[in-house]
Amino acid sequence: MKKSLLLLLVVFSLSVCRAGTTDTVSIYSTAMQRSFYCVVIKPSSYKKKKNVYPVVYLLHGYGGRYSDWIKKMPSLKDEADKMQLLIVCPDGGYSNWYFDSPVDSSIKYETYIAKEVPTFIDAHYRTIKSKTARAITGLSMGGHGALFLAFRHSETFGACGSMSGGMNLAEFGNKFDLMKRLGDTIQHAANWKNYSVLQVVEANRSSSLKIIFDCGLDDFFYHSNKQLHEKMLQLHIAHDYTERPGNHSWDYWMNSIQYHLLFFKNYFRSAAAK
User: Fold this and answer.
1) What are the start-end ranges of the E strands in the chain?
2) Is the pTM of this model over 0.85?
3) Who contacts 54 (Cβ-Cβ below 8 Å, separation ≥6)?
4) Do residues 62 and 140 touch, judged by C-beta distance below 8 A?
5) Which is nearest to 219 in space by CA: 192, 253, 193, 196?
6) 74 with 87: CB under 8 angstroms?
7) Residue 256 belongs to what H/E stretch?
8) Three-state SS for 163?
9) Which of 19-23, 31-35, 168-172, 219-223 has the lowest mean pLDDT?
């Protein structure tokens, strides 16, 4: 009995030692003249001073914040440890859709997430400073944001993904504060097309991006994901697309992110071997 108890304590101690750790940092945006919090998840091996790591940027959804992922899924610390990478969860604001608004000059989240945050992370953490060691993905609004940013900034990101992203903004009309960010659908009709991933993938084709996205069959964004998949096939843009049972929920996203992290790990390994 004592030997069994001792063995259990040893196993528990080893698992605790191997768990990743988290930082909460403040990142200043010159573009928006203010600071935002950000969670950085590090593998346990980060304490070894010579190690450098690839980075996955993980975006939250509409109405969310930087801390959503780690609060809903503390096991991301184990995933960072298992995959040997950093996971960075920046703040994209309540409903800012991760672009620089064409109608509100105070909203510049494209500049912030695609340029300012990676610059800060590379300056303050031991990262591999190459686009082939950076990936970006997210859920819902963050899924749209991740593909939007990667296609428009393929010099920064080598791989991208989306979980339940809203890919065709024109479908949503006055929902999700989009009129505040894009203007009305008549006078500013071009914005609704040009800022949708469905159009961005055509206007900013990149043969080098590695892409994964998925959506639940019962998700209200399912149709626009199917549209995007079919458009990418027409444009001969290589990608991994999956549709599976599920709806717009954390149960779905906590399952989905594991596939994304594995996809990115394989990409990082392949890119490093070239």
Assistant:
1) 21-29, 34-42, 55-59, 86-90, 134-138, 159-163, 210-216, 240-244
2) yes
3) 85, 86, 127, 128, 133, 134, 135, 264, 268
4) yes
5) 253
6) no
7) helix 250-273
8) strand
9) 168-172
Separation in Å, CA 203 to CA 206, 232, 264: 10, 12, 24
Q: Which amino acid is at 33?
A: Q
Burial 231-254 (b: 16+ CB within 10 A, else e): bbeeeebebebeeeebebeeebbb
Is the C-alpha dihedral spanning 153, 66, 32, 116 positive or negative?
Answer: negative
Q: Residue 192 and residue 168: Cα distance in Å, rounded? A: 8
Separation of alpha carbons 160 and 151, rounded Å: 9
> Regarding predicted confidence, which is higher, 136 or 193?
136
Angle at 88 between CA 86 and CA 91, to 5 degrees: 175
Residue type, 76: L
Q: Is residue 163 within 8 Å of 137, Cβ to Cβ? A: yes
